[in-house]
Amino acid sequence: MTLAGLRRLAGTGARTFFTLPTLGGLSLQKQYRDSLVFPFSREQVFQVVSDVDRYCEFVPMCVGSKVLRDSLRTDRVLSMNPETQRTEPISRRCVQAELMVGYPPFSERYTSNVELDHPWRIVATATPGGAM
């Protein structure tokens, strides 16, 4: 993979923490941003990112991580062969976890729903709250 490809893979992420009220148009939201180039294979990156239960050991500002549900789901997707025009089953790992992020004494909890298509894709969506 080229350096440009690795940069696209790493991307730049942003997450708003501690949503606070605005004061006269002044926003008090805090954000964490990071951009990285990974000198690792796709498989190595996938293995690390898919280990949701250990996020608190290596994700910046993550102070707690707990997997609530880890299951396999079979979905039907359009075949990669354009001549067949049919769907094929694929197995997708689905993980629901509660994560706590912050910097003491401030922290915020949220639920993360992670879909993993080994080794190509990981999609995580977050919803506020959690009961760690």
Textual characterization of the structure:
A hairpin with an 8-residue loop joins strand 3 and strand 4. The chain has helices at residues 3-10, 42-49, 55-58, and strands at 12-17, 30-35, 62-78, 87-103, 106-117, 121-128. It has 132 residues and is α+β, with helices and mostly antiparallel strands. It has three helices and six strands, in the order H-E-E-H-H-E-E-E-E. It has a four-stranded antiparallel β-sheet. A two-stranded antiparallel ribbon has the order 1-2.
Task: Describe the structure concisely for a colleague.
The protein is α+β, with helices and mostly antiparallel strands and 132 residues long.
Please describe the structure with a list of short key phrases separated by commas or semicolons.
single chain, 132 residues, alpha+beta, 4-stranded antiparallel sheet, two-stranded antiparallel sheet
